[in-house]
UniProtKB/TrEMBL annotation:
PANTHER family (alphabetical): AGMATINASE 1-RELATED (PTHR11358:SF30), ARGINASE/AGMATINASE (PTHR11358)
An individual GO BP term: putrescine biosynthetic process from arginine, via agmatine
Alphabetically ordered keywords of this record: Hydrolase, Metal-binding, Signal
Single GO MF descriptor: agmatinase activity
Name assigned to this protein: Putative agmatinase
Family as reported in the entry's similarity comment: Belongs to the arginase family.
UniProt cross-references to SUPFAM superfamilies, sorted A to Z: Arginase/deacetylase
Amino acid sequence: MFLPIVAAVIALPLSGAASWHDPQKVLSPTKPPSSFIDSSIFGRRSIAALNLRTPEVLPPTRDSEIHQFQTLATFAHLDFTDCTQFENSGTFDIGIVGHPFDLGVSYRPGARFGPNGARQGARRMSPASGWDMDHGGVNPFRNWATVTDCGDISNTPFDKLVAIHELEQGMRAIHKLQAKNVSTSDAVRLITIGGDHTISEYTSTVLAGAILIFHAALPILRALHSTWGRVAVLHFDSHLDTWDPKQLGGGLTKYSEVNHGTMLHIAHEEGLLSNHSNMHQGSRCTLFDEHFDLDNDLRCGFSYIRARELDTLGVDKIIKRIVETVGDSYVYLSVDIDVLDPAFAPATGTIEPGGWTTRELMQIIRGLSDAGLKIVGSDVVEFTPIYDNAAETTGIAVAQIVYEILHWMVSRLTTITVLLYARE
């Protein structure tokens, strides 16, 4: 019985051989589906029937018809400009420039990826949708200033001192440029997305006017001093950053003394800070000594509002206390992302539980802007993307804080005659 059946099966193709040459009709739209799956979205379809567009490279255009997850990864879908080239002088007012550097951290590394992470966090923003419900119809990307993304300044990952000098050269080249809107801005302003505070010590860049910058507070304070004199530093940070280098760094060498926690101590020693108007906000760090760290902080001209005090004071009283302390001084705003609780900003190098929420920080910044404090410079620092979550919580928070500070600076800017000053 078995052999005859096999023979019959083998003979079947021979009897219908002519049908092998018939056209393939499996994908024919006139043929009814053979099953439910065939009729579903998982069934086979002719690709030609989908009318796919011709392949194209998405240009870095920022028009509203481009989706927010498309195009090249500039900050908030801004146009790219090589800001180190002198021929681009007079083409922009505010530049966003990255400092991918983290050779001076004391705990978790990775801030060299901060510029890229911040741009990713800002991709939901764009000039075409830069208005919001909280700022009275103002779009900071389309106000008086032309804003551009300058890319990152290249620097070596192998030598801290060489890398800092490379960053300095890039910044010097940018600050030789003239602003586009000369009726409002006497110099280009920069938003520098950075690595750690070490770049602050050695970089002596030429900056003038109001500057929004990440992770370069000491050279900015030096430059601001040449124009504004001593400034009041509003320091939003879980840590003091006024540590004596002998406490943080060991005092072994000048190389080791310069790190991301000694910046404000050095600024005080150089006479850059107000004697009595500086404040820490959101402080909650551990200390190296029972008395010395806080005594030294007071000597550097700082008072503080601890993170837990927000629960008893509330946002309005915190704003009032800051305004009363600062008075009529020019303000330098420094925001370390670890001022936020790890629930809202897990991606930072030296993390501390018990911080503020993103909304609380945004409310305080807006309150200081509404109070009319005279902001002349700012930074947002310590974003380490490798520790962020799948939702990019920290990156999105960093981008939003920049947006809030930009609103403050756009609203407070007045025409000033600026003396350009270069440190040799």
